[in-house]
Give the backbone structure.
Amino acid sequence: MKSDENIVNTETGKKKKGVKKIIGNKDSEDCKLKANKILIKKSFFSVSNVMKCHRDDVVEYLKSNDINVLSCYPVLKRSEMANDSTPDIENEHSTMFRVCVESCDSNKMKNPDIILKHIIVRDWHFKEKKPANNFDNNHG
């Protein structure tokens, strides 16, 4: 029996075209065959209109509302980054954050009764990856 939720890209949650991935569900204590790592379905959000703070403040608030935060990174404007050095992004304060949570908590992230007044939460949209080369296979 196949389930559509098991045929997805575990990083983006999007279905892949033409590629079917089945993720097993069976538990067996006496089998030597084991998964290398536990796969967690993730959802990514943009949290903005936040008074400048550290990412730990965002994580602490979300965890206090029973949201399992897998990662949280400040989103910095280019004007905020020094031109001559790479910032220690994890320790930067920001007004916007990219937050990754377990997909089972995505409804909590979208619940206006959990999110503080005037803070904006949106689905995070990753930029499309550009092809490695611009060679057009149809004309060549």
Notes: Residues 52-79+90-125 form one domain. Residues 131 and 137 are 12 Å apart (CA to CA). The beta strands are 42-48, 53-54, 69-74, 93-94, 97-102, 120-123.
